[in-house]
């Protein structure tokens, strides 16, 4: 039996940073499930598929092979054999992923891949539906959130560092839209699992949040 840590929460709450750190501390594998939805999204984008065209999405899902490999401990995402890890971080890819992840066939394919990984390995897996749907029996479930204002502030600074100027208002609006879509979709919406530990990172440092996750894991694994 492997140990599984599930971390869910809205976009920009710091899930990947925390999951990566917790995985390193425990020598577990970090599985970024958002990257899988992004790889699918990239395929739809590259093939000019309209996210609202359910039939086209479902037909395309059969032609998409998403797989994960680890190189120097870092997750690499492959789309039909091509390493797309660098390409999937684009804003338009994230948007496409959010729009097409509402589709049941898209989810079915990726959830299967995620469950196979978690059955084999000790993992810290982050996403939107890990505790509620993918790993209902995870050793510990964390719901990591932060206020819209704080998430927007962090995103603003991140973009600024990359030399991209974007108004704080526009970033807040995008975050609210993404939250709304992720939380209100019909299949596996983002929500806190009943047995998840709630961590509000609005006023916490990365070290504090990582420590809280590790502590919750130690508590539950007993
Ligand atoms: O975490 P992220 O921004 O890389 O995820 C991109 C989109 O993928 C997100 O808006 C919703 C979707 N997603 C999902 O539906 N379920 C997951 N487990 C992970 C991501």
Account of the protein in words:
Belongs to the cytidylate kinase family. Type 1 subfamily. It is an enzyme of class 2 (transferase). GO terms for molecular function: ATP binding; dCMP kinase activity. The chain is built from 9 helices and 8 strands. The mean pLDDT is 96. With 222 residues, it is of the alpha/beta class. 51% of the residues lie in helices and 17% in strands. The strands form 2 sheets. It has a 5-stranded parallel beta sheet with strand order 2-6-1-7-8, with helices on both faces. Strands 3-4-5 form a 3-stranded antiparallel beta sheet. 2'-deoxycytidine-5'-monophosphate binds next to helix 2, helix 4 and helix 8.
How far apart the termini lie comes to: 14 Å
Q: Could you tell me the number of beta strands?
A: 8
Structural class: alpha/beta
Uncertain stretches: none
Rough outline: globular
Mean pLDDT: 96
Tell me about the largest β-sheet: 5 strands, parallel
The helical percent reads: 40-55%
Number of helices: 9
Helix-strand topology string: EHEHHEEEHHEHEHHEH
The assembly state of the depicted protein chains is: single chain
Strand order of the largest sheet: 2-6-1-7-8
What percentage of the residues does DSSP assign to strands (E)? Answer: 15-25%
Query: Whole-number radius of gyration?
Result: 17 Å
Bound molecules: 2'-deoxycytidine-5'-monophosphate
Domain Cytidylate kinase: 5-218
Family: Belongs to the cytidylate kinase family. Type 1 subfamily.
Organism: Candidatus Pullilachnospira stercoravium
GO biological process, one term: pyrimidine nucleotide metabolic process
């Amino acid at each position: 039996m492997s140990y599984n840590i599930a971390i869910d929460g809205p976009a920009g709450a710091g899930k990947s940073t925390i999951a990566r750190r917790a995985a390193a501390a425990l020598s577990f594998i970090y599985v970024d499930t958002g990257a899988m939805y992004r790889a699918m999204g990239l395929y739809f984008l590259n093939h000019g598929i309209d996210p609202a065209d359910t039939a086209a999405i479902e037909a395309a899902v059969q032609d998409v092979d998403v797989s994960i490999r680890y190189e120097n401990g870092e997750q690499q995402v492959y789309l039909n054999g091509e390493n797309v890890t660098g390409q999937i971080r684009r804003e338009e890819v994230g948007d496409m992923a959010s729009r097409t992840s509402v589709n049941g066939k898209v989810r079915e394919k990726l959830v299967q891949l995620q469950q196979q990984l978690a059955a084999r390995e000790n993992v810290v897996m982050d996403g939107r539906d890990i505790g509620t749907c993918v790993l209902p029996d995870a050793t510990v479930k964390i719901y990591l959130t932060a206020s819209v204002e704080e998430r927007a502030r962090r995103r603003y600074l991140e973009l600024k560092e990359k030399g991209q100027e974007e108004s704080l208002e526009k970033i807040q609006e995008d975050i609210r839209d993404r939250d709304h879509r992720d939380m209100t979709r019909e299949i596996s919406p983002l929500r806190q699992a009943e047995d998840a530990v709630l961590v509000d990172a609005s006023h916490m440092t990365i070290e504090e949040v990582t420590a809280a996750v590790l502590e919750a894991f130690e508590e539950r694994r007993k």
